[in-house]
Automatic annotation (TrEMBL), chains A, B:
This is Aspartate-semialdehyde dehydrogenase. Its EC number is 1.2.1.11. It comes from Streptomyces inusitatus. Belongs to the aspartate-semialdehyde dehydrogenase family. Residues 6-121 form the Semialdehyde dehydrogenase NAD-binding domain. It comes from the Bacteria. InterPro entries: Asp_semialdehyde_DH_beta, NAD(P)-bd_dom_sf, Semialdehyde_DH_NAD-bd, Semialdhyde_DH_dimer_dom. One of its GO terms (molecular function) is aspartate-semialdehyde dehydrogenase activity. One of its GO terms (biological process) is diaminopimelate biosynthetic process.
Length: 352, 352
């Protein structure tokens, strides 16, 4: 028997961290030591993992020592600073932030789609895609393998937990204030109630509202998340010239992102064949019986692992295009689960 | 001086009817008598219009007599039955239901886009488009006039009031129950709370959820509202071969529909020119300064007349395509206002 590799969970106290501790407690126990790290603010807190109490340590040079694999679940600037330190101290890093997703020397990996890419990691770092990309890529990747993808037009319905625990707290307090009012549909009502609760990290109220923005401003009116969807999809599918047009919209849902996908392929598609592919692809669940109310919604999908796909239709004016509605838990497959899958594949290397 | 024409408001007690009474009280007073009709259930109720109390009468042969213009704001089956009766009794009907929207002998009219069409009405009926079509068509029509529209890929974020007053009541009670719970993001929580409140007219919970469905099942997995968007847009823009792919999604917003629009044109587009067009088109407001939080959201738009447009971007992989986010009040321009505008144009015929 070889020794089991040691794991560090950096950012164990965050929204993604909390789900990671659940996943580590549920999955097969491939790890030796599991060390929980966060900012000095959290040092001394006690969290449960694998049924045991575990004290949170402050992230630092020392606390990164003796670790084989480090899961980084922290803001991008923290990853940018500390992931190279973890590598220098001997760990392989799996990073869930945006810090390295477009670094050509860092593979961007979705185990169901491009698992091989994780083996070549010149910087000792593997990146996990953005939660919005992850919500669609297992389904889109499977269809690409059959039909050859040429173009995507994507619109998102993103849950607030994608912005972290502060965003969840903001929507909760907005909702309780809004529910306490008469909930009139006159213009002032929602604004007023939400004004008292505060916008949290958002530029507009989210209770009883939607907001066409996610991320930070990029060039020519695009948001960073819209460009990220394009760049990441191109990298993961190895289609550097793929046409992608995305609009990211935040909705008043706590957890689970949804997307509408218009996918144009090289070859003609049929709904029957698309159903077969989606029903048999790893990490994908087909749920497509709209006449009986059979379609995925965030309330169905939250807390589950796969990408759910429904509303599969062939475009009426283009025999090569499919319309889909996809839905996935942004904290599980969208973040913690994908990183855990990558880390487990790396752990398997240790026993070879 | 010619006499002012008499108006009947059929469905005065509904969600659209309530907004119609507001609009009739705010707009220039072009009407003589205004008669309020609804089902026998509402007969005897008293509603205010133009600052006066007015008793609701039951819809019937007699109560439709002596009317010049009849605004029908009732379910499609009621319009199908009674609009021809109103015409036979001498009225011009403006119908806001789906009953006649695809009838080749009934013009489908948006005054900012195809006002001329309202003059030719072989059946004596003019139809107003679906609220989702109306939320985008003033903006898309203006861009079409300049660039020549070839294709639309559209995703909707539809408010519950688009389904009428019962839908609004359902979301309100779902929200107050959900806000009373711990609002956990565990799968059961929302479902459980909503189970008690009831789904109303919907196939899934809408509090803290989104639902990829609007309308009734049509062929090949499409919903009636998705097909309606395609058929109506083709008719209004007189582009019978326009490529349209739509996915309709309901969101937990009380009033104001939003849509993402990917519009591909014959000619190359620029954001600058698109901005100029949108800023100067009737019935359209440009609100596009995302770096300072400048984009339309339902909370900004509810209670206002125009179609608001933001997030204008040229597709990165196609110089002929624009991305837009549009937002409009489904009860105003989406229903009552558009019908009122059509009726006012017809009223003007009476004074010529
Ligand atoms: N939420 C999602 O759906 C999602 C999906 C995909 C990717 N991601 C990415 O995953 C990362 C974590 O997201 P989240 O939603 O979990 O955020 P979050 O809820 O705000 O949690 C942030 C975590 O980072 C830790 N942290 C912050 N500053 C630190 C520092 N200077 N040193 C050490 N630890 C620090 C926090 O520790 P303290 O408790 O001590 O402050 C906390 O554990 C982000 O990069 C995010 O973009 C998130
Ligand atoms: N809501 C929107 O955003 C929207 C947008 C565009 C188009 N529309 C269309 O506009 C129409 C009205 O929609 P809504 O949302 O206002 O619906 P609603 O809130 O359910 O109101 C329905 C109205 O129709 C009346 N009605 C029902 N059955 C009747 C009958 N047998 N005889 C006479 N009156 C009858 C009701 O009167 P009682 O009070 O007496 O029952 C009520 O005034 C529908 O065709 C809808 O598709 C709605």
């Amino acid at each position: 028997m070889t020794r089991k590799p040691a794991l560090a969970v950096v950012g164990a106290t965050g929204a993604v961290g909390a789900v990671m501790l659940e996943i580590l407690s549920q999955h097969e126990n491939v790890w030796g030591e599991i060390r929980l790290l966060a900012s000095p603010r959290s040092a001394g807190r006690v969290l449960a993992v694998r049924g045991e109490e575990c004290e949170v340590l402050a992230l630092g040079e020392e606390t990164l020592g003796g670790v084989d694999v480090a899961l980084f679940l922290v803001p991008a600037e923290v990853s940018a600073r500390w992931a190279p330190v973890a590598v220098a101290r001997g760990a392989v890093v799996v990073d869930s932030s945006a810090a390295f997703r477009l670094d050509p020397e860092v593979p961007l990996v979705v185990p169901e789609v491009n698992p091989h890419a994780a083996r070549i990691r010149p910087r000792g770092i593997v990146a996990s895609p953005h939660d919005t990309t992850l919500a669609m890529i297992p389904a889109v990747g499977a269809l690409h393998a059959e039909f050859g993808l040429r173009e995507l037009v994507v619109s998102s319905y993103q849950a607030v937990s994608g912005e972290g625990r502060d965003a969840v707290a903001a929507l909760r307090s907005q909702l309780s204030l809004v529910a306490g009012t008469e909930l009139g549909s006159t213009p002032g009502d929602v604004r007023r109630a939400v004004g008292e609760a505060g916008l949290g990290p958002f530029a507009a109220p989210l209770a009883l509202n939607v907001m066409p923005w996610a991320g930070v401003p990029a060039d020519d009116g695009w948001s960073s998340e819209e460009l990220g969807l394009r760049d990441e999809t191109r990298r993961i599918l190895d289609l550097p010239a793929l046409r992608v047009a995305a609009t990211c919209v935040r909705v008043p849902v706590l957890t689970a992102h949804s997307l509408t996908v218009h996918a144009r392929f090289e070859r003609e598609v049929t709904v029957e064949r698309a159903h077969e592919i989606l029903a048999t692809s790893p990490g994908v669940v087909l749920y497509d019986d709209p006449a009986s109310g059979g379609f995925p919604t965030p309330a169905d999908v939250v807390g589950t692992d796969p990408t759910w796909v429904g509303r599969v239709r062939r475009a009426l004016d283009d025999p090569c295009a499919l319309e889909l509605f996809v839905c996935g838990d942004n904290l599980r497959k969208g973040a913690a689960l994908n990183s855990a899958q990558i880390a487990e594949a790396i752990a398997a290397e240790f026993s070879r």
